[in-house]
Amino acid sequence: MAPTLAVSFNDSSDITDFVLNKGNGVKVLENVKEATHQFFRLPAEEKRKYLKEFSPSNNVRFGTSFSPEAEKALEWKDYLSLFYVSEDEASAMWPAVCKDQVLEYMKRSEIVIRKLLDVLMKNLNVTEIDETKESLLMGSKRTNLNYYPICPNPELTVGVGRHSDVSTLTFLLQDDIGGLYVRGNNDSWIHVPPVSGSIVINVGDALQIMSNGRYKSIEHRVIANGNSNRISVPIFINPRPSDKISPFPEVLASGEKAVYKEVLYSDYVKHFFRKAHDGKKTIDLAKI
Ligand SMILES: O=C(O)CCC(=O)C(=O)O
Ligand SMILES: [Fe+2]
Fold this sequence. Notes:
The longest helix is centred in the middle third of the chain and has 24 residues, at 99-122. Helix 2 (25-41) crosses helix 5 (99-122). The protein has 288 residues and is of the alpha+beta class. It is built from 9 helices and 12 strands. The chain is globular. Helix content is 31%, strand content 21%. The strands form 3 sheets. It has a 6-stranded antiparallel β-sheet with strand order 1-2-3-10-5-8. Strands 4-9-6-7 form a 4-stranded antiparallel β-sheet, with no helix packed on it. Strands 11-12 form a two-stranded antiparallel sheet. A hairpin with a 5-residue loop joins strand 6 (180-183) and strand 7 (189-191). It has helices at residues 13-19, 25-41, 44-48, 87-93, 99-122, 131-138, 205-210, 249-252, 265-274, and strands at 60-64, 78-84, 140-148, 158-163, 169-174, 180-183, 189-191, 200-203, 220-223, 230-238, 244-245, 263-264. The structure holds 2-oxoglutaric acid and fe (ii) ion. 2-oxoglutaric acid (AKG) binds next to strand 3, strand 5, strand 9 and strand 10.
């Protein structure tokens, strides 16, 4: 499948509400971008409270780069990662400067994600998203606030190295700086230009596995920038950590051979974080 997918919606009112400000959608995007700046503007000692060794919750993590222990060179990025457990947990544990804005942004994204997954599943002969499928497709969510500071030597490093996300889908908001690239044909990289009021949706590895490779996760990267700070706010829509993921029976019903075996999702994620970013190699873990 091509990196971009054209889908038509029968009833797209929820989408246009989000995208076209009818339901105040653009404001929600602006608010979460501003909240991201607010968080990264906090004094260093405030942000440090959320470092792995100090954070009051496993679900709130401030850090630098991707997998520092595994990397030869660090990526030029700081992040705050927020794993969603419940509204109450988020209210108690997430930093006050951004929790309301992130919760509202997540709530709005859900409408779009559900519609999109409905269409994507129908195309795989999955006619109903029951409770089990709902868990597999969107049972857990993680929102990252990414901050890419100005880099004095952008040619010597990267913002984020080339990788695909381990999600089902990633709902990604970027600011107006630019620098995100997706993999095109013949080893080319295609710039994803910032479009005000819009979001980018990426297919992740979990969906590639569950669709038996009919939907392919998109390899992407972010370059470092010598002139401007940049922010982005991805929501990773994931299976639950305890879910076992494998190609859906509906996809294999007509005799198609499974390309991927069953993997425990938390094992898959651990495998991803054990190594530095390196293209789409993570998915080899699930290959038969
Ligand atoms: O900053 C971006 O546009 C993309 C970030 C990204 O790929 C990620 O956080 O996985
Ligand atoms: Fe990514």
